[in-house]
Specification:
Layout lengths: L1 H31 L2 H4 L1 H22 L13 H8 L7 H18 L9 H8 L3 H11 L4 H17 L9 H7 L5 H12 L3 H11 L1
């Protein structure tokens, strides 16, 4: 929605600039009595009328552009709506999430390429629903985003180890918990802004 508003604003500014230029030309044409430019005078009013009609059309067909009507809920609002019946307080959610991170770090469960939310909830000793709420509330993403963050960091760590040099990129990724080449490349690019090969090249140059 934000991109649509920016696009609409650009269109509005271009049309407003055109109408302003036309108005300035019309004014000086009549002041200096320039016959050719005087012809713009009538078009100036037509342009202003068309601009207002265009604004009215946009307001009727796309009211959200003007802040009218409902927009898609933000992730935070959606989460609050989803868990509004929960009795967990903020402190409890933070406690659960800290416990999740400790379990993931100590047991390295993220290295299992078939790890599920249910398996993690059993390891943490928290119900699946409460575990999901804690992750979604305390982390900028869901269960899969969290696990993939750990896997990306594991890949980086493994890739720097001499004992893993004989493995391909996919081989290292599989040891880090990824179960397919497509998901690995997609997640790694999303998290780091680079492909795995680009990342390794940048680290080799740094050393």
């Amino acid at each position: 929605m934000e991109s649509l508003r920016i696009q609409w604003l650009k269109q509005f500014l271009v049309l407003t600039l055109a109408a302003t230029v036309l108005a300035v030309l019309s004014f000086f044409a009549r002041t200096w009595q320039v016959p050719i430019l005087e012809q713009f005078y009538s078009f100036h009013f037509i342009g202003i009328v068309l601009l207002f009609y265009w604004l009215s059309y946009k307001a009727l067909t796309q009211p959200v552009l003007f802040g009218i009507g409902k927009e898609i809920q933000s992730p935070i609002i959606a989460i609050e709506e989803k868990y509004k019946k929960s009795t967990l307080e903020t402190e409890q959610l933070i406690f659960i999430f800290d416990k999740v991170r400790h379990v993931l770090h100590d047991q390295q469960l993220y290295l299992k390429n078939d790890l599920t939310l249910t398996q993690l909830s059993v390891a943490v000793g928290i119900s699946r629903h409460q575990l999901s709420q804690a992750i979604n509330s305390c982390y900028t993403g869901n269960f899969f985003d969290l696990i993939n963050d750990y896997r990306v960091e594991a890949f980086k760590q493994f890739a720097s180890q001499p004992s893993k040099k004989h493995l391909s990129l996919l081989g290292i990724a599989q040891e880090a918990g990824f179960n397919s080449k497509a998901s690995f490349y997609s997640v790694f690019k999303k998290k780091t802004g680079m492909t795995p090969a680009e990342y390794l090249e940048s680290t080799s140059k740094a050393t």
